[in-house]
Design brief:
Blueprint lengths: L2 H24 L4 E6 L7 H16 L3 E6 L2 H10 L6 E2 L2 E2 L3 H25 L4 E5 L6 E5 L8 E6 L2 H8 L3 E5 L1 E4 L4 E3 L2 H12 L3 E6 L14 E3 H10 L6 H13 L4 E6 L5 H7 L6 E4 L2
Parallel strand pairs: 1-2, 1-11, 2-8, 5-8, 6-9, 11-13, 12-14
Antiparallel strand pairs: 3-4, 6-7, 9-10, 13-14
Helix pairs in contact: 2-4, 3-4, 6-8
Amino acid sequence: MKKQDMNRDWIATARTLSQALPYLQRYSDAIVVIKLGGHAMTSDEAMDSFARDVVLMRQVGINPVIVHGGGPMINALLDKLEIKSDFVNGKRVTDAATMEVVEMVLSGTVNKRIVQAINKQGGRAVGLSGKDANLVVCDPADPELGLVGNPSEINPEVIRTLFENDLIPVIAPLGAGRNGETFNINGDTVAGAIAGALSADRLLLLTDVSGVKNADGDVLTEMNSDQIREMTASGVIAGGMIPKTETALAALEEGVKAVVILDGRAPNACLLELFTEHGAGSIIRLA
């Protein structure tokens, strides 16, 4: 690269940092809960990029909380072990054998991969699940689904303790039952519940789409809760976007200031959302 080109790159970098100052000030001491979907963990390069973003967020005074999924990894191991999955209304039935695989993948392979990636970039991450310190207490979601739970109680004291010690929580979406069971929980649901309990400034739902789209297929950059309900009732919001927008509405009602649905595969997606004027994806606020 020519020296003149390098100078232009440095100048552009310095300008970007300068323009980010108001946003850095805006989010100082803020709590940002990030749901990292399994589809956003497609490669080591993507994981390293995400980890750098998280470490930078912590470096500038944000308190990030990572809640992750791992569906593709769970499916791969179930197939390898030849454990058959049954479904009820499109939802996986989680029996004892399936639950063993789910916990192995989520609390083990996936959780530790994220923790190691963050630590490699200079952060201090700690992996845990909703079972630890009774962070997430669950009731059964539906008897037909087996060990699938809905969060009924969130005890975020362990997260606050980690914040006080400059640590980054990385949480697997498992919960403790009232009778000693382990429950599998939808990752978006866990992230929303934790964000609500922490009164988070932002909940970022990283997925494999660019945001909420209107009837013409265009991404809507700003929306409110009334618009979400109207678009769901009319069928514009459908399929896999429904549980994400339902999570967003529930989190907003619990005190989260705003929820953003964005493409986690895009480089530096979190930084673009938090530290630039145009943001990324669709931001949703209460009407």
